Amino acid sequence: MKKLFLLVLFTGSLSALFAQSNTSVREEAKKTTDLLTSKYGLNADQQMKMQQIQERRVQNARDFEYLKTSDEKMYYQKKKANYDGTKFSIERLLTEQQIKIFKKDQENLRLRRIAKIKELQSAGISGFELEKATIDIE
Predict the structure, then answer these.
(1) Tens digit of pLDDT for each residue in 8-59?
(2) Residue 64 burial class via C-beta count within 10 angstroms: exposed 0-12, middle 13-18, buried 19 and up
(3) Considering its fold, how many domains does the chain have in total?
(4) Range of the domain at 84
(5) pTM, to two decimals
């Protein structure tokens, strides 16, 4: 009886923890979705798909977060892949008019990354540290 009680308690705790984690993923994704909805003027269907894209992005980021302290190089590879996958999914979702805004945003991001690279190179930083800094700019 005691084991059954502990099993029920443990299972309940896990499901509550999962529900809380899932809710926070949804909430974080919703913030980004709302921002992008106003930026690109997404319709209801696009907004629903954007929410799915952002939930996947947030969940993926959480899934490899542990690597930040154990395997930093792998962490940044996964972070870049997550960013690239999300970017591709968003681009497929947008209309021609929205893609123009998106491409302008991507150009601005590229220019910020170039400026950061020049700044760090002038400070003598290169290699993986340089790559990390550019990946962190979003």
Answers:
(1) 445 554 444 444 456 799 999 999 999 999 999 999 999 999 999 999 999 9
(2) middle
(3) 1
(4) 2-136
(5) 0.79
